[in-house]
């Protein structure tokens, strides 16, 4: 159920000006404690990208279950400025807080309560925050742009959350093994389209703005736990390339449905909202919403040959496979990244054999296997399963070991 943000004046305010609680224990790991877990998110984002304003505000209500008695809730937050934070119990009564503070090194938002939260109890952590799309690393929730046929620069906002960048878009429990359901509301200009991981529940129109409401897409599996959402704001509903362009989408589109059908037969389910949307800069694998960089999805038959077609077909198969390996099935921790990327690399060749048999993709997998075996023969190669903790260490795991050294 979607929850509309309540005016700030009606709620008790917790201030970052509170003194730091010196009794709070120091954290010796980058992994979250296990005392509390989220069971649902209600996320609201208010953007003004249509005015070329890169700042945005938001609210997230996180339903939390206490697994072990504790007086501390720890989650992730990076780049967001916390405007208001309140904790309420199952009777909607406010819980008194000692303080909340940031551990900038570990990206922890630490909420300290005056009373012990007993095991088995549930609470709602209600946070107002501000942030910005003005980042150049193509990560988190960021701004991209393109120049249309009339020479006008158009802006869009997109997400890329893997591996540790969901926390930079809004406060959340940003670990691969912590999954739950969520609802999303996105406010934007009337000339923009908002997309999230599920069909829109409804759109409210105002004088110069609109709010799009999305709910968990569980039409194939009731109450299916999924990861934190991805979302996108753009000024066209598909590719920005005009229909008269020489660039074609048919290579992509003819691969999407067969890939989904093959994976559904293979694994028994696929998110019903899965679709393709186009972005100037990156491609990502959000549950039910797959976005692509234009250079990896548009094919010009006059200037680009078989190699480009192989890339387009392979990437579509890879990203659709992530609806299973990476979303439905995800590692508890990044040490097992090959469970995401290795199987996606394997199945991109498998599903593409059905959509484009003329490319003989399964035969082409031999070169991937040979490359993996050559790499594995090195005396200094790292193990497939390799423990890491910091965001930098996690990022360095996205190498050929994770992608190519698949045990299958």
Question: Would you give an account of this structure?
Answer:
The protein is α+β, with helices and mostly antiparallel strands. Helices cover 19% and strands 31% of the residues. The chain is built from six helices and 17 strands. The strands form four sheets. A seven-stranded mixed β-sheet has the order 4-7-2-1-10-13-12, with no helix packed on it. Helix 2 crosses helix 3. This is Aminopeptidase N. Its cofactor is Zn(2+). Keywords: Glycoprotein, GPI-anchor, Hydrolase, Lipoprotein, Membrane, Metal-binding, Metalloprotease, Protease, Signal, Zinc. It is found in: Cell membrane.
Summarize the structure.
Pfam families: Peptidase_M1 (PF01433), Peptidase_M1_N (PF17900). With 408 residues, the chain is α+β, with helices and mostly antiparallel strands.
State the shape. globular
**β-strand amount:** 25-35%
Mean pLDDT: 79
Q: Provide the helix percentage.
A: 10-25%
Give the number of helices.
Answer: 6
Q: What is the radius of gyration?
A: 22 Å
The secondary-structure class comes to alpha+beta
Give a short account of the largest sheet.
7 strands, mixed
* Helix-strand sequence: EEEEEEEEEEEEEEHEEEHHHHH
Q: Poorly predicted ranges (pLDDT <50, ≥5 residues)?
A: 1-24, 218-226, 241-247, 272-284
End-to-end span in angstroms?
41 Å
What's the arrangement of strands in the largest beta sheet?
Answer: 4-7-2-1-10-13-12
**Assembly status:** single chain
Q: What is the strand tally?
A: 17
Pfam family, one: Peptidase_M1_N
Subcellular location: Cell membrane
Domain Peptidase M1 membrane alanine aminopeptidase: 286-404
Site (Transition state stabilizer): 403
């Amino acid at each position: 159920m979607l929850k509309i943000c309540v005016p700030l004046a009606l709620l008790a305010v917790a201030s970052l000006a509170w003194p730091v609680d010196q009794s709070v224990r120091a954290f010796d790991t980058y992994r979250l404690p296990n005392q509390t877990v989220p069971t649902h998110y209600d996320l609201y984002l208010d953007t003004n990208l249509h005015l070329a304003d890169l700042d945005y505000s938001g609210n997230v209500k996180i339903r939390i279950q206490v697994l072990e008695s504790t007086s501390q809730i720890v989650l992730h937050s990076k780049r967001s400025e916390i405007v208001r934070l309140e904790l309420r119990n199952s009777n909607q009564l406010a819980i008194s807080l000692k303080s909340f503070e940031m551990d900038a090194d570990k990206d922890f938002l630490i909420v300290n309560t005056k009373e012990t939260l007993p095991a088995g109890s549930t609470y709602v952590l209600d946070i107002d925050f501000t942030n910005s799309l003005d980042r150049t690393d193509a990560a988190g929730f960021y701004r991209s742009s393109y120049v249309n046929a009339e020479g006008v620069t158009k802006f869009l906002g997109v997400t890329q959350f893997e591996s540790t960048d969901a926390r930079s878009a809004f406060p959340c429990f940003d670990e691969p093994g912590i999954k739950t359901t969520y609802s999303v509301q996105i406010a934007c200009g009337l000339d923009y389209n908002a997309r999230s991981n599920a069909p829109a529940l409804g759109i409210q129109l105002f004088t110069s703005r609109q709010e799009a409401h999305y709910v968990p897409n569980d039409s194939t599996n009731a109450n299916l736990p999924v990861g934190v959402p991805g979302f996108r704001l753009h000024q066209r509903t598909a590719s920005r390339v005009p229909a008269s362009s020489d660039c074609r989408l048919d290579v992509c589109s003819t691969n999407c449905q067969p890939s989904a059908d093959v994976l559904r037969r293979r694994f028994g389910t696929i998110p019903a909202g899965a679709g393709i949307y186009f972005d100037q800069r990156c491609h990502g694998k959000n549950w039910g919403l797959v976005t692509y960089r234009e250079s990896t999805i548009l094919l010009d038959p006059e200037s680009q040959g078989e190699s480009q077609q192989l890339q387009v077909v392979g990437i579509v198969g890879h990203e659709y496979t992530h609806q299973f390996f990476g979303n439905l099935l995800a590692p508890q921790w990044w040490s097992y990244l090959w469970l995401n990327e290795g199987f996606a690399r394997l199945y991109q060749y498998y599903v593409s054999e059905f959509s484009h048999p003329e490319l003989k993709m399964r035969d082409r997998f031999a070169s991937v296997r040979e490359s993996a075996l050559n790499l594995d023969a090195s005396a200094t190669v790292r193990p497939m399963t390799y423990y890491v903790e910091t965001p930098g260490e996690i990022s360095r795991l996205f190498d050929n070991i994770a992608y190519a050294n698949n045990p299958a």
